[in-house]
Design goal:
- The protein is of the alpha+beta class and 193 residues long.
- It has 3 domains: 1-33, no CATH class; 39-139, LON domain-like (Archaeosine Trna-guanine Transglycosylase, Chain: A, domain 4, Roll); 148-192.
- The protein is 40% helix and 30% strand.
- It has helices at residues 10-19, 21-33, 63-74, 148-178, 181-192, and strands spanning 40-46, 55-60, 78-82, 94-105, 111-129, 132-139.
- The chain has a 5-stranded mixed barrel with strand order 1-3-4-5-6.
- A hairpin with a 2-residue loop joins strand 5 (111-129) and strand 6 (132-139).
- Helix 1 (10-19) crosses helix 2 (21-33) and helix 4 runs antiparallel to helix 5.
- The longest helix has 31 residues, at 148-178.
- The protein is extended, with a radius of gyration of 22 Å.
- Residues 1-5 have low confidence and may be disordered.
Length: 193
């Protein structure tokens, strides 16, 4: 759901506008800044890389993100997650839309969230609003592999990555059993070299 696709209740709109004119004007101005030239806008949580269909938990404690979550929960329960570019320190230009599937507010204003990621988007334009990032985005259409060769290449890559991850976990467990942080680090160096 976006502001462009939601029907407005005329009666409720008139009641709110009449009884809360300042709040109505502020919210309308916020909403107007979020709708641009056919692209959608969404708040961004700047944290880490996330891929479609991934699930994760978040603990929200920063005041700017607490405000953002309250606003998201009043709306469509969706936001973008984006990583920082390690070279520049600014957000990268591709994000992933996530949906808040569970939101547990804590008495001190923090939140514990369960998220599920859906689709990727490209950041067209970003700006700060009330301390957090907001971006105008366009959706990325991922094209699945078509040919048998593309599918085989993808399977091989996936298998290789899974094998590497299993090997790394085994080395970490062995190092923990032996109590040797140095053993683990040296085994990683050997594997990389």
């Amino acid at each position: 759901m976006t502001p462009r696709t939601c029907a407005v209740s005329v009666t409720l709109n008139n009641i709110i506008q009449k009884n809360f004119p300042e709040e109505y004007a502020e919210r309308k101005s916020e909403q107007d800044t979020l709708v641009h030239l056919g692209n959608e806008s969404m708040p961004l949580f700047v944290m880490d890389v996330i891929i479609p269909c991934q699930k994760l938990s978040l603990h929200i404690f920063e005041p700017r993100y607490r405000l953002m979550v309250r606003r998201i929960m009043e709306g469509n329960h969706r936001m973008g997650m984006v990583a920082l570019d390690s070279a520049t320190g600014s957000p990268v230009d591709v994000a992933c839309e996530v949906e808040i599937t569970e939101c547990d507010p804590l008495p001190d204003g923090r939140f514990v969230l369960e998220l599920e990621s859906h689709r990727r988007c490209r950041i067209v334009k970003a700006w700060d609003q009330d301390g957090y990032r907001v971006a105008e985005v366009e959706w990325v259409t991922d094209v699945p592999p078509q040919s048998d060769q593309e599918k085989a290449d993808l399977r091989e890559l996936t298998t290789s990555a899974a094998s590497f991850a299993r090997s790394w976990l085994e080395r970490a467990k062995e190092a923990a059993r032996q109590g040797g942080k140095q053993l683990f680090l040296s085994s990683c160096e050997t594997k990389v070299n």
